[in-house]
Design a protein that fits this description.
By secondary structure, the chain is of the alpha+beta class. The protein is built from 14 helices and 18 strands. Strands 1, 8, 9, 10, 11, 17 and 18 form a 7-stranded antiparallel β-sheet that branches. A 3-stranded antiparallel β-sheet has the order 2-4-5, with helices on one face. A hairpin with a 2-residue loop joins strand 4 (246-255) and strand 5.
Amino acid sequence: MADQAVEDSVIMKEDCEEDEHPLANGVIENDEDTQVKKKKKKKKKKKATTDKPGIQEEGDGTDDVTEKLEKQTLDDEKQDGQNVEKEGGDTDAAKKKKKKKKKKPNTGGKQQTDPPTIPVSELFPDGNFPKGEEVEHPAVDGKTAAWRTTNEEKRALERMQEDVYSDVRQAAEAHRQVRNYVQGFIKPGLKMIDICERLEAASRKVINENGMKAGLAFPTGCSINHCAAHYTPNNGDTTVLQYDDVCKIDFGTHINGRIIDCAFTVAFNPKYDKLLEAVKDATNTGIREAGIDVRLCDIGERIQEVMESYEVELNGKTYKVKPIRNLNGHSIGPYRIHAGKTVPIVKGGEETRMEENEFFAIETFGSTGKGIVHDDMETSHYMKNFEVGHVPLRLARSKALLNTINKNFGTLAFCRRWLDRLGETKYLMALKNLGDAGIVDPYPPLCDIRGCYTAQYEHTIMLRPTCKEIVSRGTDY
């Protein structure tokens, strides 16, 4: 009843308006066309009013009614939109919100824990692991390599290597997640052995350790100050990380023998910032210069030029940052951390060229000392000789230890802590015997002069036919 009363009222008012004096609005409307247009306009108002019942009038004109109708319509539309969103409707606003939610990465619905415990293979169940940084190969002998990017033959060669690329990227993602975790907890006052064991425990879980199919590629290096490489604490080592230490964290992961070799330097005292900056810049220079057909000696020359452009002031004395000339980058092969080619960090190296589908660890070491290292301290790193064949052994204990090494490490590097972890005891004599026989090689810590400081940065790259991919690149370095 109320709706019908409003409709009758509006019709009566509009009928009265048709009888108004032609000068009522201050305009003489004696043109026939004008009158027709006016009537059509009034009919539209009438229709709009009757289509929207329940609006109460205030005043004598229809303009107020129309304004209220428009306002009510807008309010109703807004309310309808809100209702549809609440009910899961398909308004444009609701669709946009749904699309935003779908942009999350495909991680199987899982998020990594802290500390990391979920394998990367479960975070990316479709097997599409994140790619590293992809860049064009550098120009060689004045010829650019831009053509490789779109060349169909090179793309076809890459498709044949997709399984290998997938293994490397999975190992790289595991490395990124573990090192981000380590960067979050490492601090002065921690024992070096505790740092290494926490890192390795997380790495074993994230890589989903599985015999020789997946695991750690070599022991965690945590060399301090004048020691540049190959130091990891043996059981019983009580060394503690100090505020004024410069510590190199160097660890590796692998999937099916495809190794990621990647390192960074930790320093808490800002006085070492320039040293770290110099070495990081040198490593990035080596990465930038590397590529298919590039001569290894040219990379070393550019690295040296960049690193020696830096100086660092320590305790009132200025030191030129020197590249450690007898430490190098290297090619990487399946289950082989050093595959034969070396990437120098000073000029005068080999003129050998990098080749398509090769993998390299580009690493640089800077020092405030002499810029040359020698064997020092107690040995912790060991690795089976990749080239050695069958060697007859007389000692039963040596044979048993070699069987343990073959089963758990193969030709990957290992350390004494890892033998302890496997339950091996009283093995030092047998380990020495394997070394004397040329089956297992020891790798003692490498040190510059005492009192100096050394730093290291390293990334693994693969020279794909179409481009260069820095597979271990992350947001940290």
